[in-house]
Amino acid sequence: METIVGKQSIQFQQSPHIVSGASIVGKKEGEGPLGKLFDQIEEDPMVGQNTWEEAESALQKKAAKLAMEKAGPSYSSVRYLFAGDLLGQLIATSFGLMDLQIPLFGLYGACSTIGEALMLGAMTVQGGYSENVLALTSSHFGSAEKQFRFPLEYGGQRPLAATWTVTGSGAFVLAPSGGKARISGATPGKVVDYGVKDSLNMGACMAPAACDTICQHLEDFGRTPADYDHIITGDLGSVGQTILLDLARKRGYDLSEQHLDCGMLIYDAEAQDTHAGGSGCGCSAVTLAAYILPKIETNQWKRILFVPTGALLSTVSFNEGQSVPGIAHAVVIEHC
Amino acid sequence: METIVGKQSIQFQQSPHIVSGASIVGKKEGEGPLGKLFDQIEEDPMVGQNTWEEAESALQKKAAKLAMEKAGPSYSSVRYLFAGDLLGQLIATSFGLMDLQIPLFGLYGACSTIGEALMLGAMTVQGGYSENVLALTSSHFGSAEKQFRFPLEYGGQRPLAATWTVTGSGAFVLAPSGGKARISGATPGKVVDYGVKDSLNMGACMAPAACDTICQHLEDFGRTPADYDHIITGDLGSVGQTILLDLARKRGYDLSEQHLDCGMLIYDAEAQDTHAGGSGCGCSAVTLAAYILPKIETNQWKRILFVPTGALLSTVSFNEGQSVPGIAHAVVIEHC
User: Fold this and answer.
1) Does residue A67 sit in the same domain as residue A28?
2) Do A163 and A220 belong to one domain?
3) Residue at which a domain ends, from A175, A195, A213
4) pLDDT at A50
5) Are residues B196 and B158 in the same domain?
6) pLDDT tier at B51, thresholds 50, 70, 90
């Protein structure tokens, strides 16, 4: 099979390996259904820092170091970082990773960023541009609410379609070999806009993009949903999931058997009062590191499609009455 | 020579070519020293739109289409976009490029973004992941002032060390062959922080990063400044230039013969009252497209080092008293 596949996909000929994954989360995530699986739970929402943004930076730094530590000494020399976050001008990333003194490719794909980071990281490793690279993202409930909605002190009411931004950072060391999981393919996504304007219903904003990328992926590779143990979106939540399944059905694909959503896995929506589920750059990253990757490494799942989803809004675009377009990047991860 | 060079550089074995470059700028840039070289000058600062942000999106869209048009029909199928801008959550990019319906890798490296886009684009082309890709960035004086400083209506005073954000977008089609310029190497940059906190003196914030990347590049490749016709930074301006030359001298490199700065080339600082020079994601991109690339294509310059520079601040990090770290990505462009 060729490297260039179909309309917009990539097949890796020498699949780069995910050597390690690390997850650091906040207290609420630690209390959720995946709580026991995370590497570290930070009880202090400020992570010992002075601001929400510095707290998020601290999470990134911890996750980066832990991923490198878990990879072991043979992978210690990480050459490039592929990283991003949700904050304007990526300040959680630039301040968080500065001390590592490793060249940085700053990325922004909203909550889809870990997908973008993993595929660019894999392209870099297979391309022979680097031995080891680190892909990571973060989000923080406090910094995200301040950035996108209201300061926490306002105590704003949240509609039921709203999601809860995950406090956490997930990091992954990619290398030409090692570990028990490999990235065998990727489908970078297009910006898709269905004209939805409700920033408190991001699942509805992102579902069309998720559908577009997943269906295009299946067409490009000539596969069906059954070729995957699971197709796992980032943070559509329960509202977005319904829309995705409906839209995919209209394009001839029944995803209901395979579909999972990190945003729905990470919290107990009822007990934790998180409404439609979790969201944020950290949501899919920590779920991949703590829950999905181990399933693949232990061969419980042979092949999955990991599809982080992003809502491309800012307070400026929202206040100017623009819609909230979505983007989704798909990465094929297989046991090896 | 190997693909992996020295501590942080890449040598392209089959140098991807820059098939075309397009530049669209605003009225002020059109009145500057490079005025006659730009492809299009937009007299209307709103580019027929309702907001500064939409105006910037319109510039990106025009530049993207023009670059593809200039590349010609054999390069019409662009597979991936590598793009970014200065605005929070990259709204100029996501809204500007949506209609192209091409998968998007959203990038953020502040004003260094066109360097990041060119190197990732080149890595993608040489890696065989795509035939043609498009690398582009934009900035807009109105949207940037609103994002980072004060709304224009305030009529704020600007200190002499301040730069003027370029209104413009530069776009480039990269492909395995074609055209008269090729990307032969790259040095992705690290985040460098000297603790400067003055967001109205971004040259001082970025100069240490420019120095770090340029010196590391020369060491990685075992070259001297004289191996380049010019070493061209993005938007240090006159204040940043002085600092760069001083810092580089301390590391044993005299850049004074070769150094140029896009921010100093694009405006007549005295006549146009732009103080230290131009800046913004668009500054180095349009200067590359309109001024630098033609010099290389016509073999007036055989080899240059293009080093866009970024100041990694946001209003949040600034207001929280953080410093303004810098980043610089270096790309080697040669005649072919």
Assistant:
1) yes
2) no
3) A175
4) 96
5) no
6) very high
Widest distance between CA atoms in chain A? 55
Q: How confident is the model at residue B150 (pLDDT cuts 50, 70, 90)?
A: confident
Count of domains for chain B: 2
Clarify whether residues A58 and A43 are in a common domain.
yes
The structure's pTM equals 0.97
Q: Which of residues 173-212 of B touch A (CB under 8 A)?
A: 187-191, 193
Q: Report CA torsion sign: A154, A287, A139, A70.
A: positive
For residues B316 and A145, what is the distance between their CA atoms, to the nearest angstrom?
Answer: 13
User: Does pLDDT of A1 surpass 90?
Assistant: no
CA distance B270 to B22: 27
Top-confidence residue, A230 or A146:
A230
Q: Residues A149, A192: one domain?
A: no
Cβ-nearest to A3 among B90, B129, B147:
B129
Q: How far is it, in rounded angstroms, from Cα B17 to Cα B173?
A: 8
Exposure of B4 in the CB half-sphere (CA atoms within 13 A): 14
Q: Is any Cβ of chain B less than 8 angstroms from the Cβ of A170?
A: no
Give A29-68 pLDDT, tens digit per residue: 999 999 999 999 999 999 999 999 999 999 999 999 999 9
Residue B283: partners with Cβ closer than 8 Å, 6 or more residues away: B111, B139, B165, B166, B168, B234, B235, B262, B263, B266
Question: What ipTM was reported for this prediction?
Answer: 0.97
Q: What residue type is A235 in one-letter code?
A: D
pLDDT at A145 over 90: no
Q: Which of residues 38-97 of B touch A (CB under 8 A)?
A: 50-51, 53-54, 79-80, 84, 86-91, 94-95, 97
Residue B155: per-residue pLDDT: 79
Residues in A closer than 8 angstroms to B120, CB to CB, are 105, 120
Cα-Cα-Cα-Cα torsion A51, A54, A58, A59, nearest 10 degrees, comes to: 80
Residue ranges making up the domain that contains B198: 181-335
Residue A197 is part of a domain; what is its CATH number? 3.40.47.40
Q: 3-state SS of B1-24? A: CCCEECCCEEECCCCCEEEEEEEE
Q: Distance between CA B257 and CA B34 in Å, rounded?
A: 21
Would you call B151 helix, strand, or coil by DSSP? Answer: coil
Helices (H), A16-157: 27-30, 52-71, 91-97, 113-126, 141-148
Per-residue pLDDT reduced to its tens digit, A200-221: 888 999 999 999 999 999 999 9
